[in-house]
Design goal:
- The protein has helices spanning 24-35, 48-51, 70-78, 88-94, 129-138, 157-173, 195-207, 226-232, 247-259, 270-273, 277-293, 297-308; strands spanning 41-45, 83-87, 103-106, 143-152, 177-184, 212-215, 236-240, 265-268.
- The protein has 309 residues and is an alpha/beta fold.
- The protein has a single domain (10-308), classed as TIM Barrel, CATH 3.20.20.70.
- It has an eight-stranded parallel barrel, surrounded by eight helices.
- Strand 3 (103-106), helix 5 (129-138) and strand 4 (143-152) form a beta-alpha-beta unit.
- Helix 3 (70-78) crosses helix 11, helix 9 (247-259) packs antiparallel against helix 12 and helix 11 (277-293) packs antiparallel against helix 12 (297-308).
- It starts with 23 loop residues before the first helix and ends with a helix.
- The relative contact order is 0.15.
């Protein structure tokens, strides 16, 4: 079933009730920036340098451009994205040179070295919310929101839930959007890709007041996302891009998550930045055509080819 694209005017943006009157304009601007005047989001994910260490940036089938952290910022600046999510420290190092990029500060991260079998997953904030405000104000940067990962099912989930709840409230209080990476994970979770669990995580994220929930692709396929979309209500569900795929295969995958699964966009990392600068930029344009302009897979692929030729 094809899902139509909703075009938003400023007056149609649903502003959360905890956004103060003086920050409503900033919140509306942030929401319209990341959604490009729609209810959808194409997020460029660049938080893997902690999450996956250097495995995503150096090695077989990864372009040599990706070895340099600045590659992420070059793509974000020259490509077509809703926002670029990465850690506070990287934004502080590179952000002033790329000040027009819409940034989402990824508040927490952990490496993948300690496996769930060894210890329950936990990821707590690397910086305080005041540090985000300082970065926005002192660097004069276009910081439009924050991101946070919660591992639902971990014995540490209470800490992450409480911290995420406070940070989401603070983000809204300062006119920013909030996105939660919503992952069932822990020794009590037999299948992280179970559709019912993913839906539960999306619904719990809605209870925190997040604007978007980023979820993994379920083992049941695109149709398995429909339960999560319903559970999340007004919180938009976006799908994690996962490991690198052939260009047209990834575009087809994304199209199905939107038009079969009902998702409101994509969070794409490796499928963008593991390519050369030109190819990475081209992929953002193809993805944005799918997400923001309701393009067909063929039309999105043509947008990709137009840049790389």
């Amino acid at each position: 079933m094809k899902h139509s694209l909703r075009t938003l005017k400023r007056t149609a943006v649903r502003v959360p009730a905890n956004v103060p009157a003086k920050e409503r304009g900033r919140y509306i601007n942030a929401y319209l920036t990341v959604t490009k005047g729609t209810d959808r989001l194409m997020l460029m994910a660049g938080d893997q340098k902690i999450e996956h260490l250097n495995e995503d940036f150096y090695g077989a089938n990864i372009h040599e451009d990706d070895a340099d952290p600045e590659h992420l910022f070059r793509i974000a600046a020259k490509g077509e994205i809703g926002c670029f999510a990465t850690q506070h420290g990287l934004i502080s190092q590179y952000g002033k040179q790329y000040s027009k990029v819409p940034y989402v500060v990824k508040m927490n991260s952990k490496t993948h070295l300690v496996k769930t079998a060894q210890s329950e997953p936990v990821s707590l904030a690397l910086v305080d919310f005041q540090d985000v405000l300082d970065l926005r104000n002192n660097g004069k940067l276009n910081i439009v929101g924050i991101g946070y990962t919660i591992y639902y099912g971990s014995t540490h989930e209470a800490q992450m839930l409480a911290e995420a709840g406070r940070l989401i409230a603070q983000a809204h209080a300062h006119g920013m959007i909030a996105i939660v990476w919503s992952y069932p994970r822990g020794k009590t979770v037999p299948d992280e890709k179970d559709s019912h669990l993913i839906a539960g995580a999306a619904g719990a994220t809605a209870c925190l007041g997040a604007d978007f929930a980023k979820v993994n692709y379920p083992s049941a396929g695109a149709k398995g996302l429909q339960e999560a979309v319903r559970a999340a209500g007004r919180t938009g569900v976006i799908i994690s891009g996962g490991s690198s795929k052939a260009v047209k295969d990834f575009l087809q995958f994304t199209w199905e998550t939107i038009h079969v699964g009902g998702c409101r966009g994509s969070a794409t990392g490796r499928n963008v930045h593991q390519r050369s600068l030109k190819e990475g930029i081209a992929m953002t344009k193809a993805m944005s055509a799918l997400v923001y302009r309701n393009a067909t897979v063929d039309a999105a692929y043509a947008a990709y080819q137009k840049v790389v030729r």
